[in-house]
Hints:
Elements: E1 18-29, E2 32-37, E3 54-56, E4 59-66, E5 73-77, E6 87-92, H1 94-118, E7 122-127, E8 132-136, H2 143-158, E9 163-166, H3 170-174, E10 190-193, E11 197-200, E12 215-223, E13 226-233, H4 234-254, H5 262-298, E14 304-311, H6 315-325, E15 331-338, E16 342-348, H7 356-367, E17 377-382, H8 387-398
Helix pairs in contact: 1-2, 5-6, 7-8
Amino acid sequence: MQPIEGSRRYYLDSYTTTFRTSIRERTVADGRPAVVLAETFFYPSSGGQPHDTGTLADRRVVDVLVREPDGAIVHVLDAPLADHLTEVDGLIDWPRRLDHMQQHTGQHVLSQAFIRAAGAATIGFHLGVDYVSIDLDHGNVDDGTRAAAFQEANAAVAADLAIRAWFPSAAELASISLRKTPEVDGALRIVAIGDFDVSACGGTHVARTGEVGLIHWLRTERLKRGTRISFLCGDRARRDYAEKQRIVATLSANLSCAVPELPDAVARLQADLQATRRDLGRLREEALDREATALRQEAAGSPARVLRAWEGRPVEEVRGLALRLTAGPGVVALLATGGERTQFVFSRSEDLGLDLKAALDRALAVIGGGKGGGGRVVQGGGGPTDSATLDRALAAAATGLGGG
Length: 404
């Protein structure tokens, strides 16, 4: 490997992955060992694009950042470099670098495509691990507009346009019409994608749009300030397509239908599920009616008292039983469900003037639970309770209610 010249070499060369350079400074970043190099091809996190990873000598580069205020590129390592080293060999993680190049170039292309399709400017950019997104200044990007923009973008990819990144002179810069002029100090780096798009950018990019491979839409979200478009490019898009193809093939096989028939098959399943849920709900209501009738017939005393506890029964069912039992006159229902959480549901008929709040307080005192409210139906609970303790709590609640 030959020594390199310059400082931030990634600006003019996004494809070099191995280089040799000298160590200019050993330092610490957030408690981790780090170095500043005389020159580097490692891209630091900036402009919405994540940093490169790789190795320096035998140490992993886990972060790359721009230090304020001197602008030095700091390479954060997983362990300190050997003390005797004055020069190091650098190796950049190429799959990660290429991925970022594909995604970032695809973003430039798509941002220009939305200007052409909808006059929608990009006001935000995010390059994440799972997806890329741009925020547009338009709040109403319909499906037709979105489809037109992606068609325009992929046409630019298919055209395999040449991409140039450089620092123009002041005179040259004055003659360049940028998609957006950033407010930055110092020299401005320009990225031109054929005659399709020209913008200021400090990121790494592919040499031709054909290397982007594909720009693939994921979803559209409405924001207060506009619209967010999430998408994938290159290898990410191909992996997403392969996974979705696998899912579609599996669904097609499981539903015994051709792929074009899947929407209708799923619609039929949804209709059947809704009908089944309605039938199940009706059957549950009828079962609760029968159970409440049986419990009421077993109740004795005046007023008739129903004391019953279950293990792990849904509290909604217990409440439904309590309301059914006390829909008519002369009944007090003291019901409970135990398990990981204890719940009491006490109810009385309208014609009874019993103090259910006091009864609930007595039950809660046995299990060490919180206080409940007052009224014709009261409810409260606590933590796990065994069946014997639950029975004692209901017996305590029944004290003083009469009907023994």
